[in-house]
């Protein structure tokens, strides 16, 4: 998805389109005195935060902060005072990648280098502050709507029928999920009639799983902005999210099962709740992370489709595990 800011910057833009090509270079062989003299003779354009140390072929070797250069002994070599290796942004990076560098490393500027480590330019934080604030507002609103199957632009339609056309198709996933949930309940009607308490806890079992599923979808969408996932990255993410879901499921299930035990005094109901919630929440975390990543990997838009599909799949699997465990326990 290409996200554009109010100033026309696209998160998928190559960072090279927004860098400054004029940056403060210092040859590695200079002393501090020679470097200061060269700077006075040819003042660098714009605000200078860091000086970039390069070799004869303009390959980046390190970075010298302005304060360090000014405070160093005049006979000290630039190569001795530089910070090495320098944190660089590759020329293949996008604007989104550059924003992540500012957030992660909290520096005021980053050099941009090519595949051979030649210095191409500098990305300055001032170029991004206004855009980041605007993106934060836009994306937070857009993702909130898209998780429930609505695009923010579509939600602002003045025509009632146009709004219906844009919003109804993705509700079909929820309708299908609800119908299948009713069918599932019919298959396990004997268990529900035998132990009415099982039906009492269905809302909380589904609510916990759905909440975790939407959390996983939301986190995955945030990480996918401007990125194309690999199969290895997807598998690794599913492992982490599955572990997180398991911990969340056990903690939530323990609370609900303890409540059921104190309230009803039926250990089989408590065990059924513990197993159903633990399994349902674990599956919800995995499916919530899987669907956005798979859709993006297949070159499809994950923002609108992920939420409804994840919720429907979560409801189906959670109820199936809950009812199967009940059938086994109360056989």
Automatic annotation (TrEMBL):
Compartments, record wording: Membrane
Topological type in the membrane: Multi-pass membrane protein
Residue stretches spanning the membrane: 168-188, 195-214, 245-264, 271-291, 311-330
Pfam families per the UniProt record, alphabetical: CBS, MgtE
Cellular component terms (Gene Ontology): membrane
Domain (CBS) ranges: 19-81, 82-141
Molecular-function GO term, any one: magnesium ion transmembrane transporter activity
Keywords: CBS domain, Magnesium, Membrane, Transmembrane, Transmembrane helix, Transport
SUPFAM superfamilies for this protein: CBS-domain pair (SSF54631), MgtE membrane domain-like (SSF161093)
Family: Belongs to the SLC41A transporter family.
Protein name: Magnesium transporter MgtE
Species assigned in the record: Lignipirellula cremea
